[in-house]
Amino acid sequence: MEDTNAKNDLLPEEEEQVQKKDKYVTFKSGQEFFGIKIQYVNEIIVFQEITEIPECENYIKGLINLRGKIIPVIDVRLRFGQEPIEYNDRTCIIVLNVNDTVVGLIVERIAEVVEISQKNIIPSPSIGKKDKAHHVFVNSIGKVGNSVKLLLDPDKLLNDDDIAVLEQMEKLSEEEGE
Amino acid sequence: MAEEFNTEGMLDMYLFENGQLLERLQEIVLEQKDADSFDEESMNEIFRTMHTIKGSSGVMMFDDITALSHKLEDIFYYLRESHPDNVPHLELVEHVLDVADFITGEMEKLENGETADGSSAELIKNLDEFLDSIKGKTKKEKDKVIQENVHEEPQQFYIAPMATEASHFYKIYLTFNEGIALANVHAYKIVYSLKEIAEDIMYSPEDIISDESSAEEILENGFKILLQTQTEKEQLGEMLPTGYELKKVEILECTGQEFLQGFDSFGSEIRIDLESSVEVIEARAGTKEQGKTKVDKPIAPGDFVIESKGPGKQKKLAKDKPKKQEKTTFISVDVQKMDMLMDLIGELVISESVVLQNPDLKVPGLKLDNFHKAAGQMMKISTDLQNVIMSMRMVPLTNTFQKMNRIVFDASRKLGKDVEFEMIGDATEVDKNIIEHISDPLMHLVRNSVDHGIEENEERAKKGKKEKGKVTLSAKTESGKVWISVQDNGQGLDRAKILAKARKQGLLEYGREESSYTDKEVYQFITLPGFSTNEKVTELSGRGVGMDVVVSNLQSIGGALEIESTPGEGSTMNMKIPLTLAIIDGIVMEVGNSSFVIETSMVKEFVGIRDNRLIRNPDGKEFVMIRGEGYPVLRLGEWYEISGYQSDTEDGMLVIVEVEKQVICILADRLRGKQEIVVKPIPDYIKKVKGLSGCTQLGDGSIALILDAAGLIEE
């Protein structure tokens, strides 16, 4: 590691921080670039036809058939409350696996895979209480050169509070059933 | 030694193996519960099962299980050796089942991550008393014989005696620490571990399995082993570390000659029956071939090869049971892997059609004869592949039926009824996930038959019926469905009684004559919640739960229950269940750009209609009149707000669906055809949508949603 020279000058915790680098898949949505930890990314596929599911949240676009596996896909723009745009040949689907939930993420354009070290990641700044929906998905900001990437919390991205409540209700009713 | 074992990984194996053994044990016992005694082969098998369980439980340090299985093994050892005539067979059967239940219970605890803390002391006491009672009675008559059998007849344990030049011969003296409980079991553990490397092994005292006094002998005089093996002395030493149980280990290499002299060369007091040792020595001194001919039947570990030549015994041993039919060999596979395989094959079929119908092939003037030939071959293989994977998911009903045997036995004993149990067609195969769903309903039905159906013994006699009640469980496949029926030859259902009860509960339709109810309608009442005509609530049934649970369980897998009954002659409960849940035969239809599938069996007919036949009532609900009957219409496009559906009914197609006796008409844009589809769940991430039960992949790779008609009608 190139950091070994600096080793003696650093406290053990700091040393760990410097050495820790994470890879992020970044994509563009609207004007901003977003990043998601590569551990959560199964694969990136080209856009494919979506089967709509009735009675769903607007950002859940439907189901796709990923080589025999049927997975739900969500539109990131709609999820972020941005205006929907037409899908084109640059539209991609990032297949995420978060705690065994496999979900496709429709993004406008894939940017690149970047390495961001821990020291270049700062918590996402916000004014007052963190109640803006936008901030919920972005838990920190990564600095890469002169640009910034908004780093997403995949758990929050996929799971609505509604869903959590719903799950809880299901659990309760299941327990009652028993 | 034992406490050094890492039992984590072994536990699964232990549970799996013993679970199977116990199942087999119950099977044997129940098979012969009506006989006067167990035959030789089953006795051997029960003995061997207990022996294996004891051995493995000992290794796993489950002392209660070890002790209990040891005790039962004792009993069977005694039975097998002494053939007492006056064994109360049913009592013995119950003892064996009790033991099996105890061990199963303990294993369940272990499986749930608890400790096996149940105490077997009482069961052991019962077994002791039982053993004493059969011994006590026989002692007077056969005292001498027993003495001989138990103490003087030596048994040879042997494991494929084959000597090669690389073999070493060892004499091993083991001294155990004083105060070790069940030293014989510990000794057996050592023998068991040595068996893995042994070409031949003998030990003294010989009867460490069923003779408890051998524990003391081992503690006092030490345990001696004669071992023929290819293992070097050093490695052997490592296998036998001194420690918790072993105080001293002495390993002496000796010659083959000394080895053949057996324990005599130890200067031991054990006398070896001349006849058998000559045979053994001959076999061992001989070449491999001779060794093979000697061991003409595979000898299971712990199996006794009894060399005794008592004339009386010879006769009994000769009474062989007819050979069992060949059993299929099995391996257990993770269901997830099977599902993965199935998904992959599904993909293969789809990509196959993508290749074969590729637009590139449509270029005019291409010569494709060879291509089509090869394609035909490939299609055949992929179809076969699909069939095989489907058949792999199918499991015979045998195990489920076998469990029912036990239930009949228990219930009939509890109620004091004589009930015979018969299974027909238990080899019928059903998808694995269906089996999980029918076990409970089946249990209820079988219990009901024994409890309500079959009359008391005296009553049967009074009616002039054959003394024994009979419950028949049968299974067959017919037109893509499995029929499982539970039939009894009891009293049948009492129409008047059911009607009276139904009247009391206010279930009868107002103003309808009782006589106008058909038998089928009347019998359906018993499937309603809280309906029981049994006056007395017994431990087994009569509380009115059961039949409704049976029906709802069956409905959850798309099955149904039909009841037939003849008063005085018995009743039959027919369960009609689908072969598999994974594949359904469905009608594919389209609405806008979406495809939907509905199970074919629910569809009554398709009707194309003109707009003017639709009637809209003031609150916006639509009806259609078909042959003088009005049915509600459900426009799928409207219901699910699908963009681009056809609002003009004349172009659409009405699919008339009947579910739970209700008829609804689903209006779709067009039909696409009928096909077999593989049901997949809608991902959990998407919350449940009313009226949808799953999704599937169509031939072109697109996804269709499966309509759940029952969900559509509940509003």
What is this structure's SSE topology?
The complex is a heterodimer of chains A (178) and B (715).
Chain A: H1 12-19, E1 21-29, E2 32-37, E3 41-46, E4 60-66, E5 69-75, H2 76-79, E6 92-98, E7 101-107, E8 109-117, E9 121-123, H3 133-137, E10 138-144, E11 147-152, H4 154-158, H5 161-177
Parallel strand pairs in A: 2-11, 5-7
Antiparallel strand pairs in A: 1-2, 1-8, 3-6, 4-5, 6-7, 9-10, 10-11
Chain B: H1 7-31, H2 40-59, H3 63-82, H4 89-111, H5 121-152, E1 168-176, H6 183-195, E2 198-204, H7 213-221, E3 223-229, H8 233-239, E4 246-254, H9 256-260, H10 274-285, H11 288-294, H12 311-318, H13 335-356, H14 369-392, E5 394-396, H15 398-415, E6 419-424, E7 429-431, H16 432-453, H17 457-462, E8 469-478, E9 481-488, H18 495-504, H19 519-524, H20 547-556, E10 560-566, E11 570-578, E12 583-591, E13 594-599, E14 603-607, E15 614-616, E16 622-626, E17 629-635, H21 636-639, E18 653-659, E19 662-668, E20 670-678, E21 692-697, E22 703-707, H22 709-713
Parallel strand pairs in B: 6-8, 13-22, 17-19
Antiparallel strand pairs in B: 1-3, 1-4, 2-3, 5-7, 8-9, 9-11, 10-11, 12-13, 12-20, 14-18, 15-16, 16-17, 18-19, 21-22
Helix pairs in contact in B: 1-2, 1-4, 2-3, 2-6, 3-4, 3-5, 4-5, 6-7, 13-14, 15-16, 16-20
